[in-house]
């Protein structure tokens, strides 16, 4: 980005179902930005290196048990730990590429059900702790059927990788996508990696080159 430009850098988020390839594509995008001479910051949520992140990691590996509300708030707190860094980076002209964000927190918590199949946590309650976080300029949602995801290695290793859960998560992601409007881009993640990468790059390249006009916006405010 040219130094004389008043525009800030973009905040790019990649979301998706488990085993949709989002982590691979996030890494590919970060590498491609570096190859084209753009320094960027790469973030992955949950950030398991922090104190809060280590508690989340233990829970996800089913090594510990926590109340569902407590878990949700931990995920949100983990994002808030990096909120100011994200905003400062964007204002300084450094793009931020993020693997998972608040949308995952809402969809996974909101998709938990009791023995009767009723939601354990209301959707709006799940969203409330993340109100005010830096808002992405573009969100890529990697959509894949749970059946297709199961064909990929490692499926089922973590707590939420169950087909019924993933179906509910997928529906919740689609709900958020309808609310987010044009900043939400659905990507068919069941295709070859190179095809997915090209689709993402077509939209990211001009965003990075041209920058974003205006201040960093906030989620749901």
TrEMBL record:
Biological processes annotated in GO: dTDP biosynthetic process; dTTP biosynthetic process; dUDP biosynthetic process
Domain Thymidylate kinase-like: 14-200
PANTHER family: THYMIDYLATE KINASE
HAMAP family: Thymidylate_kinase
Gene Ontology CC terms: cytosol; nucleus
Primary enzyme class: transferase
Segments traversing the membrane: none
Matching InterPro entries: P-loop_NTPase, Thymidylate_kin-like_dom, Thymidylate_kinase
Pfam family, one: Thymidylate_kin
Family: Belongs to the thymidylate kinase family.
Protein name: Thymidylate kinase
Keyword Transferase set for record: yes
Pathway: Pyrimidine metabolism; dTTP biosynthesis
Keywords: ATP-binding, Kinase, Nucleotide biosynthesis, Nucleotide-binding, Transferase
EC number(s) reported in the record: 2.7.4.9
UniProt GO MF annotations: ATP binding; dTMP kinase activity; nucleoside diphosphate kinase activity
CDD domains for this protein: TMPK
């Amino acid at each position: 980005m040219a130094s004389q430009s008043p525009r800030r850098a973009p905040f790019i988020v990649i979301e998706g179902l488990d085993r949709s390839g989002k982590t691979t594509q996030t890494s590919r995008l970060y590498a491609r930005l570096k190859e084209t001479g753009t320094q960027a910051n790469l973030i992955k949520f949950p950030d398991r290196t922090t104190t809060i992140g280590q508690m989340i990691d233990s829970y996800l590996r089913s090594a510990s048990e926590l109340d569902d509300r407590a878990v949700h708030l931990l995920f949100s707190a983990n994002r808030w730990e990096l909120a100011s860094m994200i905003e400062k980076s964007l204002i300084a002209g450094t793009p931020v590429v993020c693997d998972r964000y608040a949308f995952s927190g809402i969809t996974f918590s909101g998709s938990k059900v009791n023995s009767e199949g009723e939601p354990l946590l209301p959707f709006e309650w799940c969203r409330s702790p993340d109100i005010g976080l830096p808002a992405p300029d573009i969100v890529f949602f990697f959509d894949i059927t749970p059946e297709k995801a199961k064909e990929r290695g490692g499926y089922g290793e973590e707590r939420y990788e169950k087909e019924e859960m993933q179906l509910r998560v997928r529906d919740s992601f689609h709900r958020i996508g309808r609310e987010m409007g044009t900043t939400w881009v659905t990507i068919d993640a069941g295709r070859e990696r190179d095809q997915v990468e090209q689709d993402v790059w077509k939209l990211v390249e001009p965003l990075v080159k041209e920058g974003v006009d205006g201040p960093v916006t906030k989620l749901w405010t």
